[in-house]
Amino acid sequence: MSGRGRKAVLPPAGHRTEPPLAPGGFVVTVTNKAGYGKEFDFTGLPVAGPVQQSLAAAFAALSRGWTCHKTAGSYWGRIRVFAAFVSGLEEPPGDLDALTAATMRDWRERHIGTNTGRGTLRSVRLMLRRDPRLAVGPVAEELARRISGPTPRRQSYGQAERDRVVLAAQRQFRAAWLRICENTRLLDRWRAGGVTVGSREWRIGRILDHLARTGDVPLTLCPSGRAQATHYTLLGGRGVERTWGRLFATRGELTALAVLLTDRFGWNLSLYDRLPAPTTAPSAGETASVTYQVQIEKHRAGGGRWFSTENITDSGADSPGRLITQALEVTAHARALANILKPGSDLLMAARAYQREQQHRHLDRPAPVGPLAFGVSERMAQRWAHNHALGGSPFQRARRTTVTDQGRPLQHTRGTHESVYVLPDHRVQHASREVFEAGAREALEQAHTVVFGGTVTDGPDPGHQQTATVDCQDEQTSPWPAPGGGCAADFLLCLACPNAHVHPGHHPRLAHLHQQILSLRSALDDRTFGAGWNSHLQRLQDLRGRIGPAAWSAALARVTETDRTVVQLLVNKDLAP
Question: Cα separation of 532 and 536, whole Å?
Answer without folding.
Answer: 8
